[in-house]
């Protein structure tokens, strides 16, 4: 497994599975004496690309539903944005840590994470849309546009995920994270690095971060494909869905921030 900056994909099992899932004839297991054993159950059969697509789409759907409901409540002044963002953030963070450190794919946990992130993102989006009408749809379309573009790039092989490219993406991502942390820390002391104030440097930095998030999709796609090549059980599609969702959330927030700069 190649290294990736996404913590979800860094905890995959490295042994005990083999074969290619979803390609060729179904795998069969032969027991002692040459007798064929019963076919594996859905939970035990090898993961396929259809599993990843289905679970990711379902996870994303949950996020969209809770996000829309959350945004409606905020825009209708029914609930305070703070009353939704804080619980959504905490539940999403705690659930993601459980998934990562538990190191076992779980549909309920993944969907809980998706629902919490939907509440969190919906509340934030509602606030942004009140200040900058129409920005929500622009951010959503922009996010899916970047995701689709990077999927095409990966599938066509226009950019190959080589070890060198992987190291560059990870290094740049860590560097950007350090800068954002430093900007947050100095901001607590009343200082300004200019990375998040809406100025020219902030716009450039936001574009760089969006680019990094886009390239991280390539690593996510490669990691999901590696899971298929390893022949992991089908339940690991939930793990792939969780990993892709974390990058989608990151990308959406950064696009929303960038769009707000151009509205000021």
UniProtKB/TrEMBL annotation:
Matching InterPro entries: BaxI_1-like
Top-level taxon in the UniProt lineage: Bacteria
Coiled coil as UniProt keyword: no
Keywords of this entry: Membrane, Transmembrane, Transmembrane helix
Residues spanning the membrane: 57-76, 82-101, 108-128, 134-153, 165-186, 198-215, 236-253
Name of the featured protein: Membrane protein, YccA/Bax inhibitor family
Source species taxonomy: Bacteria, Bacillati, Actinomycetota, Actinomycetes, Pseudonocardiales
């Amino acid at each position: 497994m190649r290294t990736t900056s996404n913590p979800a994909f860094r905890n995959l099992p490295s042994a005990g599975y083999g074969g290619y899932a979803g390609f060729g004839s179904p795998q069969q297991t032969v027991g002692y004496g040459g007798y064929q054993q019963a076919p594996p159950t859905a939970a035990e059969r090898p993961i396929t690309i259809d599993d990843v697509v289905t679970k990711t789409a379902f996870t994303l759907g949950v996020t969209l539903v809770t996000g829309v409901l959350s945004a409606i409540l905020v825009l209708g002044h029914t609930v305070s944005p703070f009353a939704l963002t804080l619980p959504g953030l905490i539940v999403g963070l705690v659930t993601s840590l459980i998934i990562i450190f538990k190191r076992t794919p779980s549909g309920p946990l993944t969907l809980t994470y998706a629902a919490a992130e939907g509440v969190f993102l919906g509340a934030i989006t509602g606030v942004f849309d009140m200040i900058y009408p129409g920005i929500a749809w622009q951010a959503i379309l922009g996010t899916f546009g970047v995701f689709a573009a990077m999927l095409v790039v990966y599938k066509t092989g226009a950019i190959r995920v080589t070890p060198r490219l992987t190291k560059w993406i990870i290094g740049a991502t860590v560097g950007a994270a350090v800068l954002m942390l430093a900007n947050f820390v100095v901001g607590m002391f009343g200082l300004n690095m200019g990375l998040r104030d809406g100025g020219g440097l902030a716009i450039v930095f936001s574009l760089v971060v969006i680019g990094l998030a886009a390239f991280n999709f390539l690593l996510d796609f490669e990691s999901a494909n590696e899971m298929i090549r390893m022949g992991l059980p089908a339940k690991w599609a939930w793990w792939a869905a969780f990993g892709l969702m974390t990058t989608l959330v990151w990308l959406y927030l950064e696009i929303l921030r960038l769009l707000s700069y151009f509205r000021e």
